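Please check our next protein.
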Amino acid sequence: KDSQKITKTDFSTPLTCDLNVKDCTYSFNNKKVLISLNPKPLQSLDVTNLKIVNLGNYNNLGIKIYGLNMYMGEIKPKIHRLNSTDYESKIVLAACVLDTMRFRVEFMDNNKPIGFYFDFELKK
């Protein structure tokens, strides 16, 4: 199922918002969810701070980060709850031989997808 989703992704289509330049807002469950990754621009092998604002109340929120244009395994960092709707995490992105690596961050509650994800690019 996941591999079908990956092969149908068009990597030539630009992302609607570039997290290398600014924080991005995404619609989910009739809410605006603010995502920030810092410092900008994103760098591989450096600690990146992920902040999620207004996602909603989840008891066991987790994320999995994986490459869309090259499979390099999954990153599953710890998520820290800030309040009933906001979370944060620290991640380290893998280095890649591609000039531009497109990653997906998929959100889970109790290891089940909640239906929210966002994509971002890491440039060499």
Summary: Confidence is low (pLDDT under 50) at residues 1-7.
